[in-house]
Every structure is written in C-alpha cells, then in structure tokens.
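Quick start: what a row looks like.
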Amino acid sequence: MVYMDCCDWDKCTFCGECLMKCPVMKMDKNEAVFEIKQLLEGEFAPRVFNECTLCFNCNQLCPEGLRHHELILQRVIENRKGKIMNFLIYLVNGMPMGNLFQDFYARMTLEEQEILEKWSEIPPKSKDILYIGCFGKMMPYDIEHSNVLRELPKFGPTDICCGELAYRNVGWECYSEVIERTLKRFEQLDIERMVCYCGSCYNFLSNILPNVYGKKLPFKLISMYEWMLEKLEKGELELKNPLNYVAAISESCYVSELGTQFQENLRKIYRTAGAELVELPHHGDQNLSCGMVSVARNMNLFNGTLRTSRAKRKDLKESGVKDIAINCPGCYVGMKITNYLKLRKKFKKIHYMPVELLKAFGDDITTPIKKTLPLLMKLLLKQPFKLFKKIDYSEIVHIPVDGPLQYDWKSKVAKKK
C-alpha cells in the first residue's frame, strides 16, 4: 500500500477545484486540470512540485471526497528516486537509529530522564490517560508535575511516535514501521479515552491512521483543548493567570483535516484563558502552512521553508498585530528559526499555546519552551554536511516492530529489547 491507495482515483472528474481553490497556487481551470492529469499519470507537475506546501487543504476542496494531498505526497516522494536528505531521517523518532529527539533526551537531567522512563511503562487501568508525543517529552518536568493535568496518568514511551514526521517527510514504508510499533504498544492500554497533549498527535492518530492507513484505535481520542473545555464546563478548572494579550491565531496546516469543531475549540479555550484573538486573512480551510513541511517537497530548506514562511508573515502583517498564538510544535520551532534568520522580524512574540494554557489555569512553568531551542539548534547544526547529504532510504537499518526499542542515551544506538 502507498499514500494514494486510500482513494479510488477513477472518481476524479478533473473539475480542478482542488488546485483552483488552493490558497497557495490558485490555478486557473486549464492549468489545474493539466497538473492533476500529470499527477495521476505519475508525470512531472511543474507548479505542484515547485509550490505546493503540503498543507492538507486540498482534501477539503474535492467534491468527490478524494485526498489530493496524499496523491501529491506520493508523487513528491517518487520524484526523489529513492534518495532522501539525512536531515529528514534525523527528525524521525520511533526508528532504530539516532535521531533529534533521542539526542535531546540524552542531554536531559537525570530527574527528567526518570520521568521519561516512568512514562514508558503501561499505566494502570484508567478512564483517561494523557499521551505525550515526541516534542512534549522535551519538557517532562512541568507536565509530570502539572496541577491542571494531575488526574491524568501520563503515557509517552520514547521509542514510539504518532508518525507525522515519518509520514510527511520520509515515506510510506517508514511511517508504516513507526506506526505499527506504536499500535503494538497501544494494544496494551486499558483505557476509554486518550487525551492528546499535541495537536499533531491528535490529527495523525484520529484522522490519518483510520482514513489513510486504514486502522482504528480501540479507544476514543480527544485533544487536550477539548479535555480542558470539559473540565471548565464542570467547574473543575479555574482561570488563575489570565493571558491578557492580543495575538493572531495561527492554526497548523492540518487544521482543515480536523474540521470546524477543533477550530472552534482552539478559539474558545484561548479566549477563556484570557487571550484576545485576531483572525489571520487565511485561516480554517484556507490556512497557510508555516513552511516546515515544504522542505520535504524538494529537499531544499531555503527554497521550501523560507519561501513558504514569507506568506505566513505577510498574513500576520495584514492582521495588524505582531504577536501570534500557535498550537503546533513544528510551527513554533519553524517560526522561531525563521524569525531569527530574518533581518526584519515581523513576529514580536510567539506564544506556544499548550504551555500558555497550563500556565493560565494555574501551573508553574519551570522550563519555558524557548529554552529547548538552543539545544535543538545545536543538535541540528552539529553535523550540517552530514545532515544535508542525500542517502538511499534502503541503507537505513530496520528492526521488526514486534517489540519496543531500547535507546542507549549514551551511545545513542537503539537496540531491540
């Protein structure tokens, strides 16, 4: 199976709506039909291959319910001819080799590593648990000791992942290996609901997993935002430190996949926490990507990420405010990095809302997310020439998914238990 196998492409009527209404490319009818035909025939589609930001929006535009994002992703990966940049492999957790996340965890304090080991154990039977993804595990102390989240058992083994970075950056084979290892671990859980700390995890486990990969979890998934709103309605959560700032709300590129209810939940919980929100010109199903995934299209960091981020910055300028509220870890890291690279910075302050919300409802934050960035950048820039080298994906070492991986944080080599 590959990405585009999730749809019956004989249903395509070549109406061109997916590319004509794309907020990035905005093709005319003839151009859109030509590029769709090229994609379906496995041929080069000039504008898609050079401009598409892989933002998912086109999936909501097809009258036949076809997932054009998966078609484009399939062709983009095929166009690499088996070669992939080491940088993209380095971002993938849940594979048996050193990666950005394992290298980061290796540099944590002993207390933080002990928390990660605790989260790797299967929790006792519970109605709800909190699932913490790869990025959330970079700030384990504050989540483990959170008053807001204290009733939720925590679960987040360091060797599993929702599969987003494998899915979007590397390829179907890599995603399949990562998600199967994750599903094996999830089978051991005795729960009714999994609360996802990260919006990306929520999207990939509740949406991509059943709708593209064809598998469903045996329990319900909800986002942390929905869980917080439930607690507020029951009077079990109290606003203690109102945010008191005005910010444009920036949604991740997957927000159109999650629908209007998720979009409304974001706005409702932010406003309840005291933030005054301003809408960007492009939002919801017309939301623009931050640019972080664009590098996967042509494996060109500057032509992909930086060019795409300019459109997001233009959106912010048109909104009339300089602060931006972000729920996606990838967006936060990407915008902080591009903010640093720009000579004229347009973002005055970037608010990472999962942490901001915990603070608003009473948590003490000892490790602000901005403190993770220097180490992240150090790890990414440690071997720049090696990271930007292109390798053959078949060279990667694989381990069967029937058991967990054990990462030795000193040698940074994963071994099967």
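That is the whole record. The chain has a mean pLDDT of 89. Residues 301-319 form the longest helix (19 residues).
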